[in-house]
Amino acid sequence: MKTLDLMSLEWRLLRRDRAFWLTTLAAVSILVYGFSNGHLWMRGQTVRITEQVLQDQQGFKELHHLAEKFKQENQVLPQGLEQREGDPRYALGFAANHHQYDCRRPRPLASLAVGQSDLTSYCLPVTVWGVEGREDEGNSTGLENPLRLLLGRFDAAFAIILLMPICILVISYDLLSRERELGTLPLLLSQPVTLRRLLKLRFGLRIALFIAFCLLALALCLAYSGANFTDPRTLVEAALWLVITATYLLFWFACAFWVNCRGGTSAEHVLQLAGLWLLLVVIMPGCLNLALKQIYPSLSRMDYIDKVRGTSVAVEKKKSALLGKYLGDHPDLVAGNKKVNTDDYIQSRILIADETERTLAPIKSNFRQHYAKQQAFVEDFRFISPAVTYQHIANILTGQDGPRHQRFLDAAEAHHQALRAFYFPLFNEDGPNFGAYDAIPTFNFKEQTLTLMVKATSTALLGILIPSVICFIIGMRRLQKPLFELG
């Protein structure tokens, strides 16, 4: 039988296969629903971030205008240091009233996977005195149901990892055993066609249609959400996402092909494939998480926050002694006719900030090193399951991975340090003529390079593709045995 004739026969059979079309329709609907959930979440975050950025820009313009107005009108100068904090003509006053929020904008594919972004902050207020809210790691943009935060959001990545394999197994678990049980397999093989060729074509047609419908639905959703495919980076990221998704779906078809080739009844195939799904999607990730908690148990964030706040209070209590030592080490900061005042506002604030950061440095470093070990452990063992591999790379491509959030925190900390280096020298000899507005440091967050992203995706692609190929090869070798041995 010619290939075209065999394809025509399979297509006629497939057109009447209600289970295939209903399951495929259900899969596409699940993907669209998951994407819509993620898109609503990310659109809300984007709106909040945009409003915050516009508010910061407007605030800067108004503060700048107020400072110039005070200068032109020769407003009465404040008498005390604390009063200078409200006057934007002074560096201290401008720094105190210039509110800046460093924001981590969602990536173009962020709607595909919410990840743990609902547990972390997209914007952090950064001042010359510190990065507020970094230790709490809370998302202050809105209240959330704790149960929803615990269970996570239903997004496209969740649907692909957990539910798409079930849809694939439903449409492919009995492609060979059904023919045997109905007694039509000998009739098919009476034609000049081999069992291997028949099963390859049967699986190939279903693989092509199912994956094509799923990828098309995702691509249309991205286009509808406003993804800019004219941007080369966005286009490459979307292509990488679609390729790795197709490979993950192909893996489950490979598992179904292998089980079909092993022989047995349809009921046995269901149990075997369900067990395989349970092992790779539920048990193995759960074991990895359990091992992570046993080897690198998470540090108590509440203890960490208590240490941070306790240190700040302790430093505040001994500010007088610290200020005396500081001015003794820097006599150039005290004018000849000025009496050293241990309650000096500026020096106290600077000294407390320096001492607090010095004291907290080991605590923050230990917390970050522990987090880095956890990340390294997960990356080292992510290939134990295609589901873990796919989740890991999905978070990277959508910008919801932990390392990206850590880079955001580091960038916010670097912005804070730049503000300190800029403002602190101006505070000591502060005058009512501050005008270095353009020199004020700004937030600079660099995304991961596209080269590293392609490299990570290629590694994940091999991690999923290799077991898929192995399943197909083992199944093909199994089909070389006589038909009665497959029964």
Walk me through the structure.
With 487 residues, the protein is mostly helical. It has one domain (1-30, 153-487). It has helices spanning 3-15, 18-73, 81-84, 91-97, 146-151, 156-172, 177-182, 185-189, 195-224, 232-261, 266-295, 301-317, 319-329, 345-380, 386-398, 402-428, 450-478, and strands at 100-103, 123-127, 130-131. The chain has a three-stranded antiparallel β-sheet with strand order 1-2-3. A hairpin with a 2-residue loop joins strand 2 and strand 3. It is elongated.
Summarize the structure.
The protein has 487 residues and is an all-alpha fold.
SSE topology sketch:
Elements: H1 3-15, H2 18-73, H3 81-84, H4 91-97, E1 100-103, E2 123-127, E3 130-131, H5 146-151, H6 156-172, H7 177-182, H8 185-189, H9 195-224, H10 232-261, H11 266-295, H12 301-317, H13 319-329, H14 345-380, H15 386-398, H16 402-428, H17 450-478
Antiparallel strand pairs: 1-2, 2-3
Helix pairs in contact: 1-9, 2-6, 2-9, 6-10, 6-11, 6-15, 9-10, 10-11, 10-15, 10-17, 12-14, 13-14, 14-16, 15-17
Q: What kind of oligomer do you see?
A: single chain
Strand content: under 5%
Helix count?
17
Tell me the helix content: 55-70%
How large, in whole angstroms, is the Cα Rg? 31 Å
Roughly what is the average pLDDT, rounded to an integer?
82
Distance, first to last CA: 24 Å
Overall SS class:
mainly alpha
Task: Sum up the overall morphology in one term.
Answer: elongated
Q: How many structural domains are formed by the residues?
A: 1
H/E series: HHHHEEEHHHHHHHHHHHHH
Biggest pleated-sheet summary? 3 strands, antiparallel
Main sheet: which strands, in order across?
1-2-3
